[in-house]
Write a structure and sequence with these properties.
The structure holds two protein chains of two kinds.
Chain A: H1 2-10, H2 23-35, H3 38-64, H4 76-80, H5 84-105, H6 107-114, H7 118-151, H8 166-191, H9 194-213, H10 217-223, H11 228-236, E1 243-248, E2 254-259, H12 269-293
Antiparallel strand pairs in A: 1-2
Chain B: E1 2-11, E2 14-24, E3 29-33, H1 40-47, E4 55-60, H2 71-74, E5 75-78, H3 90-100, H4 105-114, H5 130-142, E6 148-152, H6 160-175, E7 179-183, H7 187-193, E8 196-201, E9 204-210, H8 211-217, E10 222-226, H9 230-239, E11 243-246, E12 252-255, H10 259-269, E13 275-279, H11 283-291
Parallel strand pairs in B: 3-7, 3-8, 5-6, 6-7
Antiparallel strand pairs in B: 1-2, 1-4, 8-9, 10-12, 10-13, 11-12
Helix pairs in contact in B: 3-4, 4-5
The chains are: A mainly alpha, B alpha/beta.
Chain lengths: 296, 312
């Protein structure tokens, strides 16, 4: 023991680099984490395949049955982006898993032992996830749009990026999907358990609207616009220019119509998107406070 | 150097750690002993800043853990076996940890090699045995070449060969001047590994002392005497407060009096001694005696067993 004590004084304190660990180090670590689990990579692939696939199915179907009763207000852009609904659900679950997967396996304790300033870890994790999720989401939106429009051959109407509102709808759809991913990530931080957090996500996205829909219409009109799903619907919809003229109606009747799109009781696309981002930021801020206060 | 002062932790209403103070010095292996549920793992998590104490402080090299500039290069810890994503390879697990503290990738290879996992480095950790997971945990702890190391039950799941490897590793790390703090329920193993022990029960400090002192001062310690003056010597010893047992072969087994005092007494009274040999208690005996009153989870048959590691 005596010799050990003497040697202990002899051991040069390991030279530490100047400064301290910081965001770039944590970004690199989170990037390794994200790409080193196969299930995460597959989930991103599923987001793209599902989102684009459903859009192609919808546009193919529309073209095959053209003209049909629904062509009155046929919206080529919205139809091609209909896969957004599925993509957002998968990416939301992925956002949950990025956090709860770390709690469930105990990796979080290794992470916090290496980087105990937890808010920094959350910032890095959120940043890396956002970038990857945004790329995947925009790939879904643009691929859906271009492939979908290619399916809509004449006489069915189709849109191009230069059509009014098309860029907003396509870029906005990608942003919307990504924001739902962040909602999932925030719920993951808050709830920490996979099943609970996915339950909460599904509850907010799919079950809450069902409950609201059962309420009196005065309440529906006041509340429905706050639902993420409604915000998403507005985002993928382009208010068509007011269509006037002869249109083949449902029963073969030629009608003179004027169609207005976009509900009175919805937010405009970007206001809605702002509200959605507000949800995500709020969840992440509360999550940060809890992250620091709770035992890991 | 790890210093805990008045560390107190409640989980709900249950007091897990109660005003615990101790110091873990560099250059020696300090064992951390206590019955199941006595607060060992909780204490280690508080050292690592994972759990927040309600009162008290704990510092590593004089600073709270979360203030360290390069935590992984200053403190390494193995807190639970297999705290690894089952879908991530051992190599990627170490790489993602290394990145946080700007540790070179070459160091990851070095550590995989050191714990013997190079060949399975690209396998998913979910396929690892408990022992392999333990080795990966040790590699993670050593990754930053830290001066302070914590190990919670490091030999769990290891075969005898692995146990000896860990023992030598811990002793080697201490010999290099590092602070080594290791909890275990295997007393025989701690007796071979630790120089000092911190003993806790029900979250409270029971003793901190060198292993040699603990076993010598235990009631289990005894001194064997042989003397031609059997009965007279026995009376004198009992008169001085020692308890004496006569063994079948005529030797006397004395408890409650150190060998030096027995020798002095014999000389003073003019008794000849043919043998005077002290026997230290085993660490296990000393431990059982110290923690008798503070065992939370006892077997139903009154024989306290310390079988598995503490709860998470």
């Amino acid at each position: 023991m005596t010799t050990a004590t003497i040697e202990s004084q002899a051991r040069a304190t390991a030279a530490l680099p100047a400064g301290h660990y910081s965001i770039p180090d944590l970004l690199k670590s989170e990037w390794i984490k994200l790409r080193s689990v196969r299930s995460t990579i597959w989930s991103f692939v599923i987001v793209v395949v599902l989102g684009v696939g459903i859009g192609i199915l919808a546009t193919t179907e529309s073209r095959a049955n053209w003209p049909h009763g629904g062509d009155l207000g046929f919206q080529p852009i919205r139809t091609s982006l209909i896969g957004v609904d599925a993509a957002q659900l998968v990416i939301g679950v992925l956002g949950v898993l990025v956090v709860t997967g770390e709690y469930g396996t105990g990796t979080i304790r290794a992470t916090f032992s290496a980087a105990p300033r937890r808010p920094l870890v959350l910032v890095a994790k959120t940043a890396v996830f956002t970038v990857v999720a945004l790329i995947a989401s925009e790939v879904v939106a643009f691929l859906s749009f271009f492939l979908g429009q290619a399916m809509l051959t004449a006489p069915a109407p189709h849109a191009t990026l230069s059509s009014p509102g098309a860029v907003r709808a396509v870029v906005g759809s990608g942003l919307y999907i990504c924001a739902i991913g962040l909602l999932g990530l925030g719920l993951g931080v808050l709830i920490r358990h996979t099943a609970g957090a996915i339950g909460a996500l599904v509850g907010v996205l799919l079950i809450l609207p069902l409950i609201i829909a059962a309420l009196p219409s005065s309440i529906i009109n006041a509340v429905q616009r706050y639902e993420p799903l409604q915000i998403g619907k507005v985002m993928i919809t382009v208010p068509p220019r007011i269509i006037q003229g002869r249109i083949l109606g449902p029963h073969g009747v030629v009608k003179h119509v004027v169609i207005h799109a976009g509900g009175t009781f919805t937010f405009s696309p970007w206001v809605g998107f702002g509200v959605l981002c507000g949800y995500a930021v709020g969840l992440l801020l509360v999550g940060t406070v809890l992250l620091v206060r709770r035992d890991a | 150097m790890i210093e805990a002062r008045g560390l107190t932790k409640y989980y709900g209403k249950k007091l897990a750690v109660d005003q615990l103070s101790f110091t873990v010095r560099p250059g020696v292996v300090t064992g951390f002993l206590g019955p199941n549920g006595s607060g060992k793992s909780t204490t280690m998590r508080m050292v690592m800043g994972l759990d927040n104490p309600q009162a008290g402080t704990v510092t590593v090299n004089g600073r709270p853990f979360h203030e360290l500039s390069w935590p992984l290069r200053q403190v390494g810890a193995l807190l639970e076996a297999k705290a690894i994503h089952p879908g991530r390879s051992a190599r990627n697990h170490l790489l993602m940890l290394a990145a946080t503290n700007r540790i070179a990738a070459a160091r990851v290879e070095e550590m995989l090699d050191r714990v013997g996992l190079t060949d399975v480095g690209n396998q998913r950790a979910g396929k690892f045995s408990l022992g392999m997971g333990q080795r990966l945990g040790i590699a993670a702890a050593l990754l930053g070449d830290p001066g302070v190391l914590l190990f919670d039950e490091p030999v769990n799941g290891l075969d005898p060969d692995g146990i000896r490897w860990v023992r030598n590793l811990l002793r080697g790390l201490a010999k290099e001047g590092r602070t080594v703090f290791v909890s275990s329920h295997l007393m025989s193993e701690m007796a071979l590994t630790a120089d000092e022990v911190v003993v806790i029960g029900r979250g409270r400090l029971i003793a901190q002392m060198p292993v040699s002192e603990l076993t010598a001062s235990s009631a289990g310690a005894s001194v064997t005497l042989r003397s031609p003056a059997g009965a007279g010597l026995r009376a004198a010893l009992e008169g001085a407060g020692a308890s004496v047992l006569e063994e079948p072969d005529g030797a006397l087994s004395v408890r409650g009096m150190p060998a030096s005092a027995i020798g002095d007494l014999a000389a003073r009274c003019g008794f000849t001694l043919h043998e005077l040999s002290p026997h230290a208690a085993t660490l296990e005996e000393a431990f059982m005696e110290l923690t008798e009153d503070s065992i939370d989870y006892r077997g139903t048959n009154a024989f306290a067993t310390t079988s598995q590691g503490g709860p998470r």
